[in-house]
Design a protein that fits this description.
The protein has a domain of 102 residues. α2 crosses α3. It has a two-stranded antiparallel sheet with strand order 1-2. By secondary structure, the chain is mainly alpha-helical. β1 and β2 form a beta hairpin. The protein is built from six helices and two strands, in the order αααββααα.
Length: 157
């Protein structure tokens, strides 16, 4: 019988979630090589646009080189979902087959791809629920923003 319950989080995600107890962290966990995934050459133009958008908008350092195939599956599922939604909007929830109305089979394709997008998006840290527990690294602030914040602190005193 397989393991029950939710899948365990990798140590890097536990650290991003703020976990600091050593007994809950795996010091021997293998870590993938850092770096952004390389886009597959045979990705369709529409899926390439999703690929670029995800890598541009995602939290820095969450999607790594090793996540290439998961990201590819996510991009293709997003495109399949969109195409099926367009066809479904034109044909409607019922179609006529041999003189009787039956549920449109596109509904299942839409549902399956929506589930896949949601699942893979959660795995890649792209959903609001997945991001809610992450704590990004604090980068250097803009000098002008720092100047404004200093002025606000002084005026509050």
């Amino acid at each position: 019988m397989g393991k029950r319950g939710p899948a365990p989080l990798p140590t890097s995600l536990k650290l991003l979630h703020g976990e600091r107890r050593p007994q809950r962290l795996n010091a021997a966990e293998p870590t993938p090589r850092a770096g952004r995934p390389v886009r597959p050459q045979d990705l369709s133009p529409a899926a390439t646009a999703v690929w670029r958008r995800v890598l541009r908008d995602q939290a820095p350092g969450v999607i790594q080189r090793v996540d290439r195939e998961i990201l590819r599956a996510y991009c293709e599922a997003v495109i399949r979902y969109g195409e099926a939604m367009q066809l479904y909007a034109r044909s409607g929830p019922l179609i006529q087959r041999r003189g009787t109305f039956v549920p449109n089979p596109l509904h299942r394709i839409i549902r399956d791809n929506a589930d896949l997008v949601r699942f893979l998006g959660r795995e890649l840290g792209l959903t609001p629920a997945a991001r809610s527990g992450l704590q990004g690294e604090r980068g250097a602030t803009d000098a002008f923003e720092e100047y404004l914040n200093r002025g606000r602190r002084r005026s509050a005193l």
